[in-house]
Design a protein that fits this description.
The structure is a single chain. By secondary structure, the protein is mainly beta. The chain has one domain (19-481): YVTN repeat-like/Quinoprotein amine dehydrogenase (Methylamine Dehydrogenase, Chain H, 7 Propeller), CATH 2.130.10. It has one helix at residues 2-16; strands spanning 20-35, 38-40, 47-49, 54-56, 62-68, 75-81, 86-87, 93-95, 100-106, 113-120, 134-142, 145-151, 164-165, 171-176, 181-190, 199-207, 229-232, 240-244, 249-252, 264-268, 290-292, 299-305, 309-313, 322-325, 332-340, 343-344, 363-364, 372-380, 385-393, 409-418, 423-430, 440-441, 447-451, 471-481. Strands 4, 5, 6, 7 and 8 form a 5-stranded antiparallel beta sheet that branches. Strands 21, 22, 25, 26 and 27 form a 5-stranded antiparallel beta sheet that branches. A hairpin with a 4-residue loop joins strand 30 and strand 31. It is globular and about 60 Å long. The chain starts with a helix and ends with a strand.
């Protein structure tokens, strides 16, 4: 009887505490066109992974990989066999003139895909942005043909609020089969109206026929100088959304679509005018930082933060808004749990002026205060467990307020967590696997994502489109539970 009880207890413990297994598919996919995997960060030009949007069809058999041509124009979409991470044998679909891809939804079974991107509007178009600056649009493809294209900013889109363009495609696309709605959340620059010349963000919805919706959940202008957003589908609009702005906070803004202090403050952050510390990616970011637990109303959010001490009044914004000083030089990885798309589990960040501790509510994934963490992402395995990942610099140089750090790359880390916000076991470390595209939960419960097999350096600023960095190979990695 004792041995049976012991065996049962061990079995129960094993079920309660799974571990992680990483499988790599190195250079598995031959790209039909060259791709440059590095993009310089805003202002500092430090290297970031150029995003490769990735989605898997509902039946779990077909992956859709989008990537920007190394020339800097045209986005290509290739079909991927999820069982092998190799080509399914179809020719790549090219969407001409796009300058970046900001999210893709795969529909599968001959139903194609939908993609968020940005492209210049033809010259001579009335009220077009200046300087041939790109404008975001949603593109629907089926059987290799474009069914529709809908601009979600630019001429004719909420003109009373000012016209918007997107010189950089920092954004994400989500789809709700329950409501038949696509939601797009993206960074914009206003070229007319009250905010002309300033950066903000916008949330727009398009139905399955390609019609732009004018609904309360839409937002022409939300968070100031938002250099990264988090966005995830819900059963109906508004979709779950989070923004990081340049006035001192990260907001759960599903209800407000902006940065008003009647939203939920997730975190106090030290920022500077025009930069928010790249908590959810910055340049080429805004993907896989907010994930929904399977068959649940609950979400998990991951970001990087230097913490917050010594809160003072934000005189420009007014009551309820604060400035903060950094607690640490390098950033740490943090996570937050939402019970639903509107509700943060636990207390929100304080707005009490004079508070010495502005980060007491933060659930830290990394405790040590020396290294710098960046490129944080999260995805869920099921209704209980999630995977949080980040990159690390052991001895960082963090000389710019509100921006990232430089230094020798010291590993990508993968931490298993549960929906109570607890860490499970120790993180898994890899020196040759990175997260450079959307993390997707596939049919058998694995989490998979694309990356380029390369020597990754975070030491110094990089330039645009260096030919020697281009590749015609894509790798994939999958994490499973044991």
């Amino acid at each position: 009887m004792f041995s049976i009880l012991v065996t049962s207890a061990l079995f129960t413990a094993a079920l309660a505490a799974p571990s992680l297994k990483l499988k790599k598919y190195v250079d598995s996919l031959d790209l039909e066109f060259s791709f440059n995997p590095v993009i310089p960060a805003y202002w500092t030009s430090l290297p970031h992974h150029r995003r490769t949007p990735f989605s898997v069809s509902p039946d779990g058999k077909t992956g859709y990989l989008a990537y920007l041509d190394a020339s800097g124009s045209d986005v290509h979409v290739q079909h991927v066999d999820v069982s092998t991470m190799k080509s399914k044998g179809y020719n790549a679909i090219t969407i001409p003139n796009l300058k970046e891809a900001g999210g893709i939804v795969g529909h599968g079974s001959g139903k194609g895909f939908t993609l968020l991107g940005n492209e210049p509007i033809p010259s001579g178009t009335e009220n077009a942005p200046p300087g041939n600056t790109p404008v975001p649009a949603i593109y629907r493809y089926q059987k290799g043909k474009q069914l529709w294209k809908t601009f979600v900013a630019g001429p004719g889109v909420h003109p009373d609020d000012g016209l918007m363009m997107s010189p950089d495609m920092n954004g994400d696309l989500a789809y709700s089969p329950e409501s038949g709605m696509y939601g797009a959340y993206f960074v914009v620059t206003a070229y007319t109206g009250f905010a002309e010349g300033h950066f903000g963000d916008s949330i727009q919805y398009v139905n399955e026929r390609g019609a732009l919706q004018t609904i309360d959940a839409s937002s022409a202008w939300g968070c100031s100088h938002n250099t990264g957003i988090a966005f995830e589908a819900a059963a109906e609009p508004p979709f779950a959304s989070i923004c990081a702005e340049d006035q001192g906070a990260i907001w759960l803004n599903t209800d407000t679509q902006g940065m008003s202090n009647d939203g939920v403050k997730i975190s106090n952050e030290q920022v500077t005018n025009g930069a928010s510390g790249e908590p959810v990616g910055g340049m080429s970011g805004s993907y896989s930082s907010l994930a929904k637990f399977q068959n649940s109303t609950e979400y998990i959010f991951a970001w990087v933060s230097r913490g917050a001490v010594d809160l003072t009044t934000n005189d420009w914004m007014g009551a309820g808004y604060t400035h903060a000083e950094n607690r640490t030089n390098g950033r740490r990885t943090a996570m937050a749990i939402l019970s639903d798309k509107n509700t943060l589990v636990g207390p929100e960040a304080t707005s009490e002026v004079g508070a010495a501790n502005g980060d007491s509510q933060v659930n830290w994934v990394t405790e040590s205060q020396g290294p710098d963490r960046s490129n944080a992402h999260v995805a869920t395995f099921d209704d209980t467990f999630a995977l949080v990942t980040w990159e690390e610099i052991a001895s960082p140089n963090c000389g710019e307020i509100g921006f990232g750090c430089s230094g020798q790359f010291s590993g990508t880390y993968f931490q298993l967590v549960n929906k109570k916000g607890d860490k499970v076991g120790e993180p898994l470390k890899s020196m040759d696997t990175y997260v450079a595209g959307d993390m997707v939960t596939v049919a058998d419960g694995k989490i998979c994502w694309p990356y380029v097999n390369m020597d990754w350096s975070l030491d110094a600023a990089t330039g645009y489109g260096a030919p020697e960095t281009s590749t015609k190979k894509m790798s994939f990695a999958c994490m499973s539970l044991l």
